[in-house]
Amino acid sequence: MSLDKELLAILCCPATKQAVSLAEESLIQKLNAAVARGELKNLGKRPVSVELDGGLIRADRKILYPVRDNIPVMLIEEGIPLEQID
C-alpha cells in the first residue's frame, strides 16, 4: 500500500496533532489476524470487522488509523489502540 507523499506529509492525528507514518506490513498482518479472531476494537469501543489495507501509525506508536481502499480514515473514534496486540 502506498499513499501520496504530499498527502502523507500533511496528515496528522486528529486528537493530538502528532505526525503519522505508514505502518509496516507486519503490523497490518497482526492487526488483520486480530480482526479475523474478532478481538480488535477501535477507540469508539466498536469491534473492527473489516480487514485493513494499511494504516497510519501515530508518532508515539500508540494509535493506528486504518487505510481502506487507499483512503486514510482519520476519525478519532476509528483509531485503533495498539496496546491490544503483542
Query: Approximately what portion of the residues adopt beta-strand conformation?
Result: 15-25%
Structural class of the helices, strands and pairings? alpha+beta
Uncertain runs with pLDDT below 50, 5 residues or more? Answer: none
Apparent shape: globular
Distance between the termini: 23 Å
DSSP strand count: 5
Computed CA radius of gyration, to the nearest angstrom: 12 Å
Work out the helicity level: 10-25%
Which H/E pattern describes the elements? Answer: HEHEEEE
Question: What's the main sheet like?
Answer: 5 strands, antiparallel
Summarize model confidence as the mean pLDDT.
94
**DSSP helix count?**
2
What labels would you give this structure?
5 strands, five-stranded antiparallel sheet, globular, 86 residues, alpha+beta, single chain
Describe this structure as you would to a colleague.
With 86 residues, the protein is an alpha+beta fold. The protein has helices at residues 5-10, 25-37; strands spanning 20-22, 54-58, 63-68, 71-72, 80-81. Strands 1, 2, 3, 4 and 5 form a five-stranded antiparallel β-sheet that branches. Strand 3 (63-68) and strand 4 (71-72) form a beta hairpin. The radius of gyration is 12 Å and the shape is globular. The relative contact order is 0.25.
